[in-house]
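re: that chain from earlier
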Amino acid sequence: MHPCPGTPTPAHSTVTETHVITTSGLTKVYRSRGREVTALDGVDLHVREGEVYGVIGQSGAGKSSLIRCVNLLERPTSGTVTVAGQDLTALAGRGPRAGKELRRARSRIGMVFQHFNLLSSRTVQDNVELPLEILGQAGRARSRKALELLDLVGLADKAKAYPAQLSGGQKQRVGIARALAGDPKVLLSDEATSALDPETTRSILQLLRDLNRQLGLTVLLITHEMDVVKSICDSAALMEKGRIVESGTVSELLATPGSELAAALFPVSGERTGADRTVLDITFQGEAATQPVISQLSRTYNIDISILGAAIDTVGGLQIGRMRIELPGRYEDNVVPVGFLREQGLQIDVVGQENLLVKEGAK
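^ sequence. v structure.
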């Protein structure tokens, strides 16, 4: 990953790995009635082969523009988009040959929409067959492929039903089956779960993760829900005002001092109880999450430790624990105990006055 200027550098960069989706200097400016709105401002994105990559941000951050530029549903104002080694922006010419090549390239990129975009007059099977029909595939082959995909997403018994007869989760499964019709290498998900209830959201996210593993799909999803990133993403990026301000694998982010994404993925609260106290946020990963490190610290240095807050969860498939503790005395008085914690391989963030994070990382 390549963090933007000002972004904490991840502990372990993986720039040598194969990137299936790459955007470079991607800019999108919308012009309307004499006004210009910059939706994307020089976005550099690198998505590795076979991972689930989440882009998160508030409304207006540029997430939807980004994902629509990746498959050129929106044409970038400047910059490049490369998918599976092919520069899609080079195919965005006006000639018929360029258009044909771009359509062929798009057929290898599946797209799942927030509001399903199913044709109400077609059956479930016919909706899944639609991309194959556009590609000119014969009827019998289309039918066989559509039924296989419906079975894959758990809707084999709904082939003859119409969208109006389906629940929201079932409609989204049809949308996913349709997105897989062209055997894509990449699946794009545009807020695919934001219109669903929590239980249905979990089932759709699990389906996306299963497809990622079974088919070797690279999945790029956008969301405004941190739980989506926590549930299935291997990597994530935070967007603000059309720019990526932080990115990396989930494990890198959790090991990065001062990471906004890490704090949002795994919040821990608790206020200091008095002046001249040192408050630490400690992140445990893997086996460290089960070790009695705090009790060892207390015994070794004969100090009283207050636990202000703690939580343990699974993030990106990793068992993660976070704890906020308070030590007596100022930070300068606790350099040795803090060093002991770092020697155990723990990520330590020192919370300063007025709860401002002093960036302190493992060396």
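The two ends are 20 Å apart (CA to CA).
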